[in-house]
Design brief:
Residues 29-48 bind DNA. The protein has 198 residues and is an all-alpha fold. The protein is 72% helix and 0% strand. The longest helix has 25 residues, at 114-138.
């Protein structure tokens, strides 16, 4: 059996994500990927059993990395504002430093691969975020609310800013570059919106 060449594996992973982002899952094929990597299709089948296995493995590996970055230095015992700020830092860093992988995950969200991939990272993330939120609710730092409401207020503004940044323009086509001032001004408004009234 041939030894796994890690350089080729990383090249395959990067090119596969780029192709899914540019062509979607419908336009993605193992033959195109092999051509883009300058390797034979047979070489791909040394590493992956088929197209689904290739996409799933790449997505699982990147999801694990994303989860580690998102939870990096995050402590469920932080105050609500400090913990949410750390999440904004980690999430924005991952997306800004990994634009192709982030766009790849956007494609995954609306695909049949979503369930397989999300299962893998949700456990640790759910446990830490659950502990964090329960503590914040108990300490009256935030009201209890449905997860969808919380996510929409706590994170959707960040993802909108990151999307504007990625596209290079905001509403109405005005040029836009995300900076610290804009990000943290938005964050302050989010915390204010989530803070229970006295």
């Amino acid at each position: 059996m041939r030894v796994r060449n890690e350089e080729k594996v990383q090249l395959v992973k990067q090119k596969a994500m780029e192709m899914v982002v540019s062509d979607g899952f419908e336009g993605f094929s193992v033959n195109k990927l092999a051509r883009a990597c300058g390797i034979s299709v047979a070489t791909l089948y040394i590493y992956y059993k088929d197209k689904d296995d290739l996409i799933t493995e790449i997505a699982l590996e990147e999801a694990k990395r994303m989860g580690e970055i998102t939870l990096g230095d995050f402590d469920p015992e932080l105050s609500f504002a400090e913990g949410l700020r750390k999440q904004w830092e980690n999430r924005s860093r991952y997306i800004l430093e990994n634009p192709v992988a982030s766009a790849f995950f956007e494609q995954l969200r609306t695909s049949t691969y979503q369930d397989k991939v999300m299962e893998c990272i949700i456990c640790d993330f759910k446990a830490k975020m659950g502990t964090f939120m329960q503590k914040a609710i108990k300490n009256k730092e935030v009201d209890a609310m449905p997860l969808e409401v919380y996510w929409s207020v706590a994170y959707a503004p960040l993802y909108s800013l990151l999307r504007f940044h990625h596209e290079g323009r905001s509403l109405g086509g005005k040029p836009f570059v995300l900076n610290e001032d804009i990000m943290w001004r938005t964050f302050d408004l989010v915390v204010k919106a989530l803070t229970p009234s006295k």
